[in-house]
Design brief:
0% strand, elongated, 25 helices, Serine Threonine Protein Phosphatase 5, Tetratricopeptide repeat, 451 residues
């Protein structure tokens, strides 16, 4: 390397500048001013003053390519790589340049392969080097060469997280998915590499996925447990561990794992989602609702998801929680009249926002399209808000609409709306016969005293 570098420096012309960085900066200034010729001259002087600087070399090579002098660009890269044989990134940059400019040209590929083979002598088992050799071998259809590289990659002395992950990718290319021997080889590679590097995130995830996809969830869990011990700050894989524990029918462990994650980061949507799903399966709606609510607040959801959970909160006599959730839902879906209607109901039932509920009812009604069918529950609640504001006439109209809108199967709800309308008439001292008849109809549909 020293001899090649000395040769490069010895070839410098007498006019080479003393400060290549300053000359490069002046070149950038010229370039910004549109003085391209002057800028290129300065870039070239800077490169001649520091011929091993990669950014300067890349600029010089690109100028030659643009000018149609591909041979000159290749010469620059060749001399630069020859001067730095102990720098693998430089060798790989030369190889990549040859392949990118050669576009499959046989001569360029042969030269690139020669550079890689030479570099392999200095950097045996290096993953980046082996990966390029492997791809070149596969492109040539040289499966025997690919297998030889694979064996070189997985030698015990070469084993590392990066080489293990590369071996997994290569194995998928070289061997059928049903190959038992290949699977057992990966088992050993993963087990060995994870034991040596339990805190490596990508390795732990790939290993756990390997065992999960091959039907060995317990081994996947074991690897993630070790990873969590070695790298407790990796909340993504700790969450993944909890999900796998649920799938393996180990709920006590899963709950402990996920709750520990949420203590550190309460905004882990996947952890909340997994707990919500489990609690619903276990018929524990209160716990399920709490976690499902957090999921929607963190990452949003569909209109129907917000409506369903908002209705659950209302049914559980938690109007404030319903209101806060539905405010988020309407923010995400501002054109949804259904969410606006549900929000107005929740706001009226929540003592903290009851005073502004009437305005929300009007806004929701205005948002509904002319051909949309009104929600009778919304109309009844709107009527109650209007009555409280001292507006009996519009309240009466909405109660009538609600009674007409309820389906025949909603007898209890229809009866309630009828009693509201009858009570409104009675407080106004009008329509006494109609009020009495309406109450009789309501009692026939929903006899008093029945649950």
């Amino acid at each position: 390397m020293k001899a090649a570098a000395i040769t490069l420096f010895a070839a410098l012309p007498a006019f080479a500048v003393e400060n290549p960085r300053l000359e490069f900066a002046k070149g950038l200034l010229d370039q910004s001013r549109g003085n391209i010729g002057s800028a290129n001259e300065r870039f070239e002087k800077a490169r001649l003053a520091d011929p091993l600087a990669r950014p300067l070399l890349e600029r010089a090579a690109q100028r030659r390519v643009t000018a149609g002098d591909l041979a000159g660009a290749v010469t620059l890269y060749r001399e630069w790589a020859a001067a730095t044989p102990d720098r693998l990134p430089n060798q790989l940059a030369y190889v990549d340049f040859l392949r990118n400019q050669g576009h499959g040209d046989a001569v360029a590929e042969k030269l690139a392969a020669s550079v890689l083979e030479s570099a392999l002598q200095r950097f045996p088992h290096h993953p980046s080097l082996l990966d390029r050799l492997f791809r070149a071998s596969e492109a040539r259809g040289d499966r025997a060469g690919s297998l030889a590289l694979f064996e070189s990659l997985i030698k015990p002395e070469a084993l590392s997280p990066d080489s293990t992950l590369m071996a997994v990718r290569w194995s998928a290319v070289l061997f059928p998915a049903a190959d038992t021997a290949a699977r057992e080889r990966l088992d050993r590679l993963f087990s060995s590499a994870c034991a040596a590097s339990p805190g490596h995130r990508s390795l732990a995830r790939a290993a756990s996925e390997h065992f999960r996809k091959t039907g060995r969830t317990d081994r996947a869990i074991e690897l993630l447990v070790r990873h969590a011990e070695a790298s407790p700050a990796d909340l993504d894989l700790r969450t993944r561990l909890g999900v796998l524990q649920f799938s393996a029918k180990r709920p006590t462990e899963a709950i402990k794992t996920l709750e520990a994650v949420l203590e550190i980061d309460p905004n882990r949507a996947l952890a909340h989602e997994s707990l919500a799903k489990f609690y619903r399966q276990e018929n524990q709606p209160d716990l399920a609702r709490r976690h499902a609510d957090t999921v929607l607040k963190i990452r949003g959801g569909s209109q129907d998801e917000f409506l369903a959970l908002g209705e659950e909160w209302l049914a559980a006599n938690e109007p404030k929680k319903a209101r806060i959730l539905l405010e988020k839902g309407l923010f995400d879906h501002p054109d949804s009249s259904e969410l606006a209607e549900k929000l107005s109901i929740a706001s009226r039932r929540d003592p903290e926002t009851r005073a502004k509920a009437a305005r929300l009812f009007r806004e929701a009604e205005a948002l509904r399209s002319a051909d949309a069918k009104p929600d009778p529950a919304f109309l009844v609640e709107f009527a109650e808000a209007l009555i409280q504001e001292g507006q009996p006439a519009p309240a009466e109209e909405r109660l009538r609409q609600a009674i007409r809108a309820y389906p025949a199967t909603a007898k209890k709800e229809s009866a309630t709306a009828m009693r509201h309308l009858a009570g409104l008439w009675e407080t106004q001292g009008k329509n006494a016969d109609a009020a009495r008849s309406l109450r009789q109809r309501a009692d026939a549909m929903d006899p008093p005293g029945q649950p």
